């Protein structure tokens, strides 16, 4: 059962010739079951043999990302890959038809990407330059038109004064141009200071951004949101001399704002001639824009189109192939190169050896140069294997809950298997409500049935919840189920099976002594005055019972681990005393709770559980005044004395034997493993006659590698007796005190359930109770209003915040109270070398709104 324990792993060495490295790694990646071991994790990637290839792949991906921005800018919709297996088959089909070595295909694609990037970026730059030129021409036209409206015809008339000596003083010059709208106030202030108020300044909005965007819209281009609003300025100053100091100052000020300053024509004919030239230039620029955009569209369409047999756009094909190629070289860097061979190590799930050998034979057949592909050989592992589970859509979210705390140790009991039931069940105990649980259940059903549609809604909150849909539906189911146990429907009890009580003189009396409500709590309890006390007592005791059962199960799993790993010392010196201690203390307390539920005590003199547990320790020889077993105090005294004695004995049993036994072994633990060595792996029948010299060199390299040590040597672990004693003392104290604190921690099941029920009751009483009795139109409007308030409060507080709160508390109970009983959580995940996995991680989906 691969989910109860991780799959068994075997350790292999791989030796392949350098010429066949790409072909072999390409075949093995389709299998997806090899976990390559880095021969030197401390060595930077830049110092590895194929670091340059990885860098080239990154450069190509960066170039594609810049092209993707252009595709989005010009509204080109890409067809994304939906089936990675089909795409990988198409990759293989392309490789076979090329009749060239497989690794050379990346060189061809790299050159193609570079050429396309240069071509498309050049076209895009030309288009932007033409658009900017159109903006400048359009801006000049608008400036001349508005300046003419401001200055009028009088600007072109030469006025001659009566006194020739005053001729220059009666002439006025003008400057026109453009500034940013946000610079308007600063521009006026500077002009005023420079001219000392001896100039007339008029500023008018150009509305250039509207004209600019309408022009881009006419070419089917996106709007330019970076376009700044601009203003026309007209400055009229005294004097018309070309070299006057005032004019030079004004020109410097205008030029300092880094916008256009336009020479205003001296006559109406020049103005009309200038406007005609601008119209001609504008038309030429628009024609060039049409041609450039058409060429750019053709280049971009080549990236958008699908090739025959491919299930995605050519751009997506390039991106995913480059990612695949980078992934291959990254894993190839995990191998060490010595001479003409690569040597490496990998973990493989048990039973897949023949499949790997078949892949190597396929690599031999696919190798055009008929180079030998090498072989694998099983070796003695040097360290702990990785942890590998076969997960599916149902088990994945529960395993993620476990992995977030820590990865399971190799072959230890996996808490994820039990979490499938215990996690949503404990959540349901805290979130117990028929109505709220059913809504959560419906939410999970909705995501399961409409998964395909929701996966394409990138902005939808349900899209994020798709991987956890089965967790959600189980949480809703158990909340619904526990709601029936508590008989709680939006704070209202449902009388589904008929109550065992009937009202009589303002009291509730039992109709028949042997009457029992078939399922859950009798609804009459909610109407009684002792409803809150009864439900609190019931939920609190039920929480303690569930908690102790949960922890006892965790201790049992520790025993299962000890037996599986043949760790009999921990089995007899830790598991057995821990189990006995828990059963004799908190297990006995649960037993008392159940016995008290099953018995009817005379005169309602029911024993106190807390008093019984305290007297068990403080008064071990006194008979109880109110025994748990009616009329049998001697029996209870004997049982409590035996259980107390066993619990006391278990404490030194956990503390002393293990350190003494370990200390007798020279006060040290030593873990040593023999070093493995390479063996000649390539058989003579794999060597072709045509390449005898090359293959002879390959055999010599194999012999040179025969004396090399394995990649990892596990250092000897040493523990002196002092460390053993300290460690065991901490473990014992933690377990004994943790038994109390962990049991108390399960009371959160009661506390959260109480809080949920009280909030639901408050919302119902404040919003609905008594608000639905008003008749007429006003009553209907008030009922609708208060129902909306009730719905929003229920969703905002109970269906979101309380769901998250119960989820987090369920996490705490599993991580701390349950898993610390047996779970080591010091493993590391099996990371299969798989094209399918890495491409699935990088798939993109269209955003359908």
Automatic annotation (TrEMBL):
Record GO terms (molecular function): ATPase binding; proton-transporting ATPase activity, rotational mechanism
Topology term for the membrane: Multi-pass membrane protein
One cellular component (GO) term of this entry: vacuolar proton-transporting V-type ATPase complex
Main location as per UniProt: membrane
Pfam families: V_ATPase_I (PF01496)
Subcellular location: Membrane
Protein keywords: Coiled coil, Hydrogen ion transport, Ion transport, Membrane, Transmembrane, Transmembrane helix, Transport
Record's keyword annotation contains Transferase: no
Transmembrane domains' residue ranges: 425-449, 470-487, 538-557, 578-598, 635-656, 776-799
Coiled-coil spans in chain: 106-140, 268-302
Biological process, per Gene Ontology: vacuolar acidification
Annotated function: Essential component of the vacuolar proton pump (V-ATPase), a multimeric enzyme that catalyzes the translocation of protons across the membranes. Required for assembly and activity of the V-ATPase.
Family: Belongs to the V-ATPase 116 kDa subunit family.
Protein name per the record: V-type proton ATPase subunit a
Species whose genome carries this gene: Paramecium sonneborni
Taxonomic placement: Eukaryota, Sar, Alveolata, Ciliophora, Intramacronucleata
